[in-house]
Amino acid sequence: MPPRPAASPLLSLHDVSLAHDDDSPPILTAVTLTLFPGMRLLLRGPTAAGKSTLLAALAGRIPPRHGSRAAARGLQLLWSPHEGPDRPSARDDESAVAFLRRLGEGCGEAAALGALSAAGLDQWAARRAWAALSAGERSLAALAAAPSELLLLDEPALGLGREEARAAAAVLAPEAWEGTLVCASGHEEFCRALRPTHVAWVEGGGVRLVECGASAGGEESDFGDGAS
Fold first, then answer.
1. Which residues contact 122 (CB under 8 A, 6 or more apart)?
2. Distance CA 8, CA 193 (A)
3. Residue limits of the ABC transporter domain (predicted)?
4. How far apart are CA 153 and CA 87, in angstroms?
5. Nearest one of 42, 80, 38 to 61, comparing CA atoms
6. Average pLDDT score over residue span 188-213
7. Could you tell me whether strands 150-154 and 28-35 are parallel, antiparallel, or unpaired per DSSP bridges?
8. How much is the pTM?
9. What is the pLDDT of residues 71-107, one digit of tens each?
10. Which residues make beta-bridge pairs with 43?
11. 41 secondary structure, DSSP code
12. Which of 57, 152, 191, 204 is the right S-S partner for 79, CB 3.0 to 4.6 Å?
């Protein structure tokens, strides 16, 4: 069920305009979005519409040109961008197991393998060099080290097959992970298995929020159709 409106928000953007830098035209304007505990928000829209920019703004990595961002005190979040130096990452020659053990400051190999397996990464991929993993497999490794409050994910299922995508979505299912989730994905199988409470359509320079199961006109919403 969607979070109750009376719940205290974890994070909010109020009437923000977002651009890559001060010299670039705005990508998104007049965006107001509030994240509540337990909310599972799927970002959909055409390529280059601003989904990654919106995730970066929620993470506090892109300051609004106009408007404001507010976060709950002590909020712990993990932002996993599609690419770039801020993505939770390992050294190119480091395996996912070694990466997780390093993040866990002494985590044993068996525990690291168990966490990676639970996130959908098999033992063979877990021991391959980071540079040899697909973008989707790297996302699964990042999920294994996720915090318990807020996850911001950009295309975590990229490069995954149908069954791999289902396994990744199962790790993020409400009964398996109780935190708040914002995820941009064009992988249809992953989107359907993720069981979002809301969908935000990012297109035309704006963001339109829809509650899953209902469209603006009161009809059932199918978030799997439309632009990815």
1. none
2. 27
3. 29-157
4. 10
5. 80
6. 91
7. unpaired
8. 0.74
9. 998 887 777 776 544 445 567 788 888 888 877 656 7
10. 184, 200
11. E
12. 152
Task: Please report, for residues 23, 41, 45, 208, 220, the alpha-carbon distance to residue 205 in angstroms, rounded to integers and kept in the order given.
Answer: 17, 19, 11, 10, 25
Could you identify the residue written with the tokens 């069981």? 195
Cα Rg for the chain, rounded, in angstroms? 17
In degrees and rounded to multiples of 5, residue 206 shows phi and psi of -140, 180
In whole numbers, what is the pLDDT of the chain averaged over residues?
A: 81
Task: State mean pLDDT over 12-37.
Answer: 92
> Facing residues of 11 across strands?
35, 71
- List all residues 6 or more positions away from 90 whose beta carbon is below 8 Å from its beta carbon: 96, 98, 99, 102, 130, 141
* CA-closest candidate to residue 88, choices 135, 120, 124: 135
d(CA 186, CA 98): 30
- List CB contacts of 210: < 8 A, sequence separation 6 or more: 198, 199, 200, 201, 216, 221, 223
Distances (CA, A) of 113 to 65, 167, 174, 210: 43, 16, 23, 38
- What number is the average pLDDT over the span 155-179? 81
User: Strand, helix or coil at 108?
Assistant: coil
State the virtual CA torsion across 163, 136, 33, 228 in degrees, nearest 10: -70
Contact 17, 172 (CB under 8 A): no
